[in-house]
Amino acid sequence: MSSEIPSVPPVTRAPLPVLPLSGGARLRPWREEDAAVLVEVGEDPGIRHWNRIGPESPRSAVDRIRRWDARWREGGAAIWAVADAADGAVGLVGLGDIDLSGADAEFLYWLLPRGRGRGLMGQAVTAVTRWGFDSLGLHRLRICHSVANPASCAVATRAGFTLEGTMRGALLHADGWHDEHLHARLATDPPPGEDPA
Asked: What is the pLDDT along the chain (197 residues), one digit of tens a residue?
């Protein structure tokens, strides 16, 4: 096994790419006109329970979308809207804490109830994984989630992220400290469902 540090290309100033999903859905950059979706998310108790998301006003939601765009241009994060066939945002997927010198990043994702039950998030995580490895040259991607969140665990497993262990008391949720599962994929891992032999 090589200990050589992978070559990571410099971050481009190009817009975040659009990534196609099945059924006409796609991943696209957030737009200021999507602010109402973030206001809705801030009022959704299920999403707020598993994510560190607070209430948003229309103005603060626009500011957040602008910060995501700035973080992409700085090379620190890549955050997409999960858009349905009608191009309405129904979720979020992205890589936060991108470390180009360390060649790794951590996933974040959520779906509104109207986006669930169609396999969108599994497709989204798979598409962003491929993009992170192929376009950014990342070596390792990780997903962390509360051990009490089986839906997130299922997304990680279906996308080929190996469960590496449990981090005790790793994240403070509204109801207290939660143990977190740590899943990861390496660029050298076989795609999900492919026999490593």
From this structure: 444 444 444 555 688 999 999 999 999 999 999 999 999 988 877 777 787 777 789 999 999 999 999 999 999 999 999 999 898 999 999 999 999 999 999 999 999 999 998 899 999 999 999 999 999 999 999 999 999 999 999 999 999 999 999 999 998 888 889 999 999 999 999 988 765 55
Q: What are the residues facing 166 on neighbouring strands?
A: 181
Looking at residue 195, its amino acid is D
What is the reported pTM? 0.89
Q: Which fold has domain 19-110+120-186?
A: Aminopeptidase (3.40.630)
Which residue type, as a one-letter code, is found at position 137?
A: G
Helix (H) or strand (E) holding 57: none
